[in-house]
Amino acid sequence: MKFGIIKERKNPPDRRVVFSPGKLQEFRKNYPEAVIKVESSDIRVFSNDAYKAAGLEVAENVSDCDVLFGVKEVPIEALISNKKYFFFSHTIKKQPYNRKLLLAILEKNIELYDHETIVGENGMRLIGFGRYAGIVGAYNGFRAIGLTNETFNLQKAETLESQQELISELKKIKLPNIKILLTGNGKVAYGAKEMLDAMSIKEVSVDEYLKNSFNEPVYCLADVLDYNKRKDGQILDNFDFYDHPEKYESDFMRFAKVTDFFIAGHFYGNGAPYLFTREDAKAKDFHIKFVADISCDVDGPVASTIKASTIADPIYGYNPQTESEVNFKDKEAIVVMAVDNLPCELPKDASEGFGEMFLQNVIPAFYNNDKEGVLQRAKMTENGKLTPRFSYLQDYIEGKE
Questions:
Q1: What digits encode the pLDDT tens for the residues 73-125?
Q2: Which tens digit of pLDDT belongs to each residue from 236-254?
Q3: Neighbours of 379 (CB within 10 A)
Q4: At what angle do helices 347-361 and 21-30 cross, to 10 degrees?
Q5: Run of H or E residues at 85
Q6: Contact of 41 with 18, CB cutoff 8 Å
Q7: Which of 88, 163, 124, 201 is nearest to 350 (CA)?
Q8: Could you tell me which residues come within 8 angstroms of residue 46 by beta carbon, excluding any fewer than 6 positions away?
């Protein structure tokens, strides 16, 4: 089987790649029968020469490969018919802007495996950049605090090489005695937690966080049942919340009254209650001043996220009374960092970590007859049609939604 690493062609350019040179060497060592080609690219975080130095073939053309690995959407005109493709297609939630892409994939008889659809039997994602979104998101949140208060000036994450360099920068700053709330229990939240722990910020329990004052910065990691409660008062488990989100209401305001800096690292499921609404944000006792919304659901569960921000312009202000965007230094503003492609700021580390997960969870399936069903579950299209698991997208491709 012949595998190709494709050049990223989407704008703005993305410097990440599925496999670093080192990970491809590991790939070849584990599966000597694999043939691997790397499409030449001048934007990738690892140079063509780095791949050549690792003994890999770099070519202008990878159309002779069976399986093609990329990160972001492949432009329609660059798609090669009758291939297996792996990339983030941003179609599984029926995103209108990529409907034509999915149509083209079907027309060109491409087998599409979206990175988001690569899941274990329990439905949990096996690969992703979530940890790196959490790492960069937490850093950017602290950077926003320094810029707003004019107390410290952290370098932009994209100008630094690695997570270690981000941590070194954060260790130089002095924080006031703020309370930091971090929501979530997945890779994103734990990526952010790595940064808080590296800064030696004290972690406290939900109870301590809500009831006590501290003479140092502290943080609390809150899970879904900490900030949502069942309408009938029953206390069950997370799975009940995931299965029946409509039976819950937000209990987030108890945190909002005592939090200075909120890092949103949770996954938001359809039908779940909003954490805080625009009305909640207007309340006199709503205390949150800074929001690093790593989840970045626009007009969703975090009311201050009225748009995604960009790596070039990552911070904006939200005035809760007028429900509108203002300068982030406006004294009435909630300061928002809601960049939706955070891992792009740490392309080297993010690519290394992604390749590690891919090598562990996906590549073996090509050589063990897909005994865990990883490829079968992830396959979205086959023979010009949607696979049964993704038949819910039929109305979307027909333009009925």
A1: 999 999 999 999 999 999 998 999 999 999 999 999 999 999 999 999 998 89
A2: 999 999 999 999 999 999 9
A3: 19
A4: 10
A5: strand 84-87
A6: no
A7: 163
A8: 17, 20, 21, 348, 351
Angstrom distance (rounded) from CA 165 to CA 153: 15
Strand pairing report for 315-319 and 334-337? antiparallel
DSSP 167-194: HHHHHT----S-EEEEE-SSHHHHHHHH
Nearest CA to 195 out of 234, 154, 232, 228 is that of 154
Distances (CA, A) of 156 to 160, 239, 268, 296, 315: 7, 38, 28, 19, 12
> Which two tokens mark 196?
């808080």
Nearest Cα residue to 300 out of 93, 72, 87:
93
Q: In 10 A of CB 313, how many CB atoms?
A: 8
Strand, coil or helix: what is 287? coil
Note if the pTM is more than 0.85. Answer: yes
Tokens of 167: 């941590």
d(CA 307, CA 328): 14
Please tell me the predicted confidence (pLDDT) of residue 400. 84
Beta bridge partners of 4: 37, 68
User: In the chain, how long is the greatest CA-to-CA distance?
Assistant: 66
Residue 90: count of CB within 10 angstroms of its CB? 15
The string over 341-368, giving b where at least 16 C-beta atoms fall within 10 Å of a residue's C-beta and e elsewhere, is: bbbbbbbbbbbbbbbbbbbebbbebbee
The tokens describing 338, both together, are 């809601």
Question: Can you give the pLDDT at residue 12?
Answer: 82
Model confidence pLDDT, tens digit, residues 167-189 = 999 999 999 999 999 999 999 99
Q: With beta carbons less than 8 A apart as the criterion, state whether 222 and 247 touch.
A: no
Which one-letter amino acid corresponds to residue 208? E
Give the containing element (helix H, strand E) for 264.
strand 261-264
